[in-house]
Design goal:
seven-stranded mixed sheet, LeuD_type2/HacB/DmdB, leucine biosynthesis, alpha/beta, lyase, 8 helices, globular, 167 residues, AconitaseA/IPMdHydase_ssu_swvl, Aconitase, domain 4
């Protein structure tokens, strides 16, 4: 995993809940190729069709609130989200995302400093988000060492398989 993640921003507001990230009416779908078609459909029905893999989602506070369904994180990984940078995250969504290998970084004030389509470079090792479109640099909350280890492995399952093998 690169410690610098670059891509175009897709900006959303605060309190984006898991039903907006992955609407409940699609819960019967489990194949990642099917699941990814519904990413962010509760807030932007055209998101999956227009999103470029590697892009970053930027949001306000409380991203991923609502139910604890893992589908919300699964759909973001399946559609190719490079990272989610938000002012804050719902705790369960945060753990689900990191466990699936999605970098989730809290960055105070980010929703007021980034516009849809801006080119961003997120440096995980320096906890810094650079808006290449405006030249502005935003300090973020550092990613913890263990979370970074999980992300570098591609998620908790690949990490455990690498450490302990298959049993």
């Amino acid at each position: 995993m690169d410690k610098i993640i670059s891509g175009r921003a897709r900006v959303f507001g605060s309190n984006i809940d898991t039903d907006q990230i992955y609407p409940g009416r699609f819960l019967s779908e489990t194949n990642p190729d099917d699941v990814k078609r519904h990413a962010m459909a509760g807030v932007d029905p055209d998101f999956a069709a227009s999103f470029r893999p590697g892009g970053l989602i930027v949001a306000g506070t409380n991203f991923g609130c609502g139910s604890s369904r893992e589908h919300a994180a699964v759909t973001l990984k399946a559609v190719g989200v490079g990272a989610v940078v938000a002012e804050s995250f719902a705790r369960i969504f945060f753990r689900n995302g990191v466990n699936l290998g999605i970098p989730l970084v809290a960055c105070p004030g980010v929703s007021k400093k980034v516009r849809d389509g801006d080119l961003l470079a997120l440096d995980l090792s320096r906890a810094l988000l650079k808006n290449e479109s405006s030249g502005e640099e935003l300090p973020c909350e550092p990613v913890g060492d263990y979370a970074l280890t999980i992300l570098e492995a591609g998620g908790i399952k690949p990490l455990l398989k690498a450490r302990y093998g298959r049993h």
